[in-house]
């Protein structure tokens, strides 16, 4: 049977495989084959080939027809349990959310005994808490909460016990970063381990990432090195309101340079981003695109954020709401949303 495959030079195979997998387009029921120095990566019938070609545009890749060998069926957790468990994957960590300790142990053992490439299974033991936005975990299988997560061609080293990171937001991050152009000045006010600034830097932007969590900034620096973009990223530990502080005589020399600096600002702190809007306005250049994340009741998910932005930006900036986007459901009757806002001085 003929199958559509992405053909890439062998040395680009892992990069291409990661991007295809991130797009949920890798066909697991066929073997990846090597032939004459090229890897052939089978893709699912429903794959958006135009999107794949765009994602692989910096590689010597094309899509061809081939007859790869069928892969033997993997043993999956559902085969062991008799039901489909709910879990997320972050690198080689599986994350479950089970209230019953006995059921959690059964699910964890089934994931570990399956043929999934999983080394650690953790169960959520607390909500995201505190100003550093971390949670507690019960480690049910394995001995580490550190892993390397791959997303749209980037690799992120992360310790989920030390920093906040959500694999569920990969598509949203890719949406933002896909519009970044070379030579943009991008400022992430709550940067974490770098899931916005690192892919932006790979597109040629000059980036600044600030975070209150010292561990997150250390991982951001390591990830910048890992992805070969350290020369385009400045990582700063601290409260962004102090990094861009007033009055002027209290600012550090580094902080001074970021007034009126940004072409694009990311504000992904949805419970309290409104408290930082005055700082965002000081960071914004003459024409700046602001990505403002919020969590609001579904009866008016965008209104509070729009009003807060207009109040903070007036009278210096004209405000144009370019996109109102529901990112995901957060809780019953609560939505995680994003406003893409053009600030023009």
From TrEMBL:
Gene3D superfamilies: 3.30.70.2580, Met-10+ protein-like domains (3.30.300.110), Vaccinia Virus protein VP39 (3.40.50.150). GO terms for biological process: tRNA N1-guanine methylation. Keywords: Cytoplasm, Methyltransferase, S-adenosyl-L-methionine, Transferase, tRNA processing. GO terms for cellular component: cytoplasm. Residues 87-345 form the SAM-dependent methyltransferase TRM5/TYW2-type domain. One of its GO terms (molecular function) is tRNA (guanine(37)-N1)-methyltransferase activity. Pfam families: TRM5-TYW2_MTfase, Trm5_N, TYW2_N_2. InterPro entries: MeTrfase_TRM5/TYW2 (IPR030382), SAM-dependent_MTases_sf (IPR029063), TRM5-TYW2-like_MTfase (IPR056743), TRM5/TYW2-like_N (IPR056744), Trm5a/b_N (IPR040601). Its EC number is 2.1.1.228. PANTHER family: TRNA (GUANINE(37)-N1)-METHYLTRANSFERASE (PTHR23245:SF36), TRNA METHYLTRANSFERASE (PTHR23245). This is tRNA (Guanine(37)-N(1))-methyltransferase. The lineage of its organism: Archaea, Methanobacteriati, Methanobacteriota, Stenosarchaea group, Halobacteria. The gene is trm5.
